[in-house]
Specification:
Blueprint (H helix, E strand, L loop, with lengths): L4 H41 L1 H4 L10 E6 L3 H13 L3 E6 L4 E5 L8 E7 L6 E8 L9 H15 L7 H4 L1
Length: 165
């Protein structure tokens, strides 16, 4: 079949339309890639996601735990903290947990300290916060209540029906 002007015109029209479609798709793909890169960059710059925030000691909620082994107290602390916060520092030997909320949420750091950090008859648990704004959620109270609730009902490592609500 000989190539005629009509076939050449059809061929060029189809190729031109295809080129325009590809160009639009490349622009869209480039735009989406730019958005992805920017969103990933924002996550990397969030200070509290990468380092443990400064959490002052001696200014928080303090309570005593009696007649529980250190492992149970430690597990209850981990469970209470991770139910609401991202852990940024964990040191079982020192009895210290530091958690935080992402910078875009409040950037707040919460520390949980267990003394002594070994088996004993009783432990002092201190929960402190770097909260600057009194309008923000009081994580000290929430974590304290959760930990005491876990310790009082026993800790099996499994979620109860109350936790699923």
């Amino acid at each position: 079949m000989p190539v005629t002007k009509t076939w050449a015109f059809v061929y060029l029209t189809v190729m031109g339309a295809l080129a325009v479609t590809i160009k639009k798709n490349l622009l869209l793909a480039g735009f989406l890639l730019l958005i992805l890169c920017l969103s990933l960059g924002c996550g990397v710059t969030a200070k509290n996601q990468l380092t443990a925030p400064d959490v002052p000691r001696g200014k928080g909620i303090i309570f005593t735990v009696k007649d529980k082994p250190y492992l149970k107290v430690w597990q209850a602390a981990i469970r209470a903290m991770t139910s609401e916060l991202n852990l940024t520092s964990v040191d079982k030997q020192k009895g210290e947990l530091i958690g935080s909320r992402p910078r875009w949420d409040s950037g707040e750091g919460v520390g949980l300290f267990i003394t002594p950090a070994r088996d004993a008859e009783s432990y002092i648990v201190e929960i402190t916060s770097s909260r600057d704004d009194p309008m923000l959620k009081d994580w000290q109270v929430l974590i304290s209540e959760k930990m005491q609730k876990i310790l009082n009902r026993g800790y099996s490592g499994l979620k109860s029906k109350e936790d699923k609500k």
